[in-house]
Amino acid sequence: MWKLAWRQLLRNRARTLITGSAIALAVAMFLMSLALGDGMYGKMMQAAERSAGGGVLIHHDGWWKGRDSTANITAPGPVIAAAERVAGVRGVAARVILEGLLTSASREGFAGANVRGIDPAAERPFNDLSRYLKRGDFLSGDDPRAIVLGEKLADDLSVDLGDRVVLRFVDATGKEEPALFRLGGIVATGSAEIDRQIALVRLATAQEVAKLGAGVTQIGVLGDPGEPLDALKADVARALGTASAGLELLTWQEAMPELVGFIEMDGNMNIMFALVIFVIVAFGIANTFLMSVIERVRELGLLAALGVTPARIGGLVLRETVLLALVAMTLGFALALAGHAYFATHGLDYGAFIGGDFDVSGVIMDDLIIYTKVDAPRWLGSGAAVLVMILLSALYPAWRATRLDPSQAMRTYE
Amino acid sequence: MTAATAPSAAPDADTAIITARDVTKVYKQGKVEVLALRGVDLDVGQGEFVVLAGPSGSGKSTLLNLIGALDHPTEGSILVAGREITHLSRSVAARFRLTSLGFVFQAYNLVPVLTCYENAEYTLALAGVPRTERRRLVVPLLERVGLGDMLTRKPHELSGGQQQRIAVVRAIASRPALVLADEPTANLDSETSGNLLDLMLELNAEHGTTFVFASHDPDLIARARRVVRLKDGRIDGDERR
Ligand SMILES: Nc1ncnc2c1ncn2[C@@H]1O[C@H](COP(=O)(O)OP(=O)(O)OP(=O)(O)O)[C@@H](O)[C@H]1O
Ligand SMILES: [Mg+2]
Fold first, then answer.
1. Using CA atoms, how far apart are residues A10 and A367, in angstroms rounded to an integer?
2. Any idea where the domains of chain B sit in the sequence?
3. Does A385 have pLDDT greater than 50?
4. Closest CA of chain A from B143, distance in Å
5. Which long-range contacts (CB under 8 A, 24 or more apart) does B129-135 make?
6. Given CB atoms, is B99 within the 8 Å cutoff of chain A?
7. What's the fold here for domain B46-64+103-240?
8. What is the value of ipTM here, to two decimals?
């Protein structure tokens, strides 16, 4: 029976080739999109981690939820020192976050803003916004009151380099205060959403205006990209020891679950898209095999007349499908592996497709060279799912074959 | 050598191969009912060589299909080799055909993707006969019908007569009790069909295999040992020679 199925496929070479290559290509594309999706997912998670301010964020207990300006890390020194000692840590940055209302001194515009006091050198391993400096300098001039704004935010406030801006906020003692800054630099990331949020001053300046002394709001820890965040968090907590009293450690995924959800949804959309392609291919296969059954009414009828049971006739059609599917899927896997071998080392420049950077709900994706990642269980699982889908698509043609009336095969002259 | 001179295995009328009683077949085409058989009684004993004759549309093929368990009669009963086949399910009927019957059709007898030899041994292979045994049974028969050097050819590389001979070999290779043939010579010239007929008569004589044909072919009718004439779905004459 296998022999018959095999010869049947070889007999109609053109059709077998077309159907087979459709399956092979669809499988290859499906697997490649999985591998690219996984590579992309990894990239996005890393970018999200960097723009969140680190894999693990340390705040005064309750600050993240309550944003109480009086709840700060009063003695950051030992915390930073401890975090820096953790193996694999690539960066530790202390920040002051001042939430308030920014206005231009001329009162032409205002905007709610998070002004962040940062140490530009310490931020470099994180999300180094100095790369996007468009005009002025990035907190490197003489003016201690310099502020760097995103281009859109500066526009909203109608301010230009050298203009003064005022931040009204609540300081560490709980008093509402105005603080005066002078626009020293403008950054343009390419994302309007992000450019509306950026407001940066020097760490020391922020500490001074907020009456924090040596205190900070947040300490971000960036770990090794391969290390799971929970492990990093545990490592940091262990390194802190008693210094962690009164502090809260959050992984960025705990701090920003919506962002994780968004990135995962993006990945699921890709898989859905690939599945839709596959359902279409499955219909094509069903159609091809149905045609091949209808064409062979006489031949299959002859087999029935000779004594092949209906079940075995259906089995013959299924066998043809399985053979074709297995050969084609092997080819598809080979193609996908070849593609993976290339793109895992050379990378696929996704940016070239979409024309530059893009951002996903506030995360700038600037490094868009995607390296494929193969998740072996997922590949094999998808392969099995595809095989099942192909078999399902062959069920109807096979069932039709079992319904053939052998007495009609004898009436060949009619 | 022809069957006329061959030692003949005497038909054994006591061992009934076919017992058909009051067989009626009605085809429904939409609202129109076609009465293809109207109460046919037929007894065929082992070793007989019977041709069903009669004008076109008289019901020859219909009767042959019913005897071959390819279709169910509307009424009546048919026993083949002692077995009631009237109400067999499709798969039981298929197994019955495989083990008890041989078929030769008018055309399209062979599976195009199988070679000459593979076609000839097909039903044996289906029945699970081991490979060497199949070779032992089939190759001499193919040699006998003059196809010994064409074992690996595909059907489309053979003439119509050669194809029919392979179908005959396939039909008798498993030594069935009964071989049914619907117009096996209709597509052949008279010399070729004469040779095919010789072959079947020889096999009938040698093995006592029962043959039942449906045919218009005057040569075939002339050489049959029994001619059952059908007309309008009824038996109109039964002549033994
Ligand atoms: N599947 C069918 N559906 C409807 N009517 C049918 C069917 N098969 C046969 N018939 C009708 O039954 C009658 C007998 O047909 P059958 O094929 O048995 O005749 P036949 O003697 O074999 O004729 P021929 O010599 O032309 O082969 C005819 O009137 C035919 O039209
Ligand atoms: Mg007929």
1. 48
2. 46-64+103-240
3. yes
4. 23
5. B129/B174
6. yes
7. Rossmann fold (3.40.50)
8. 0.89
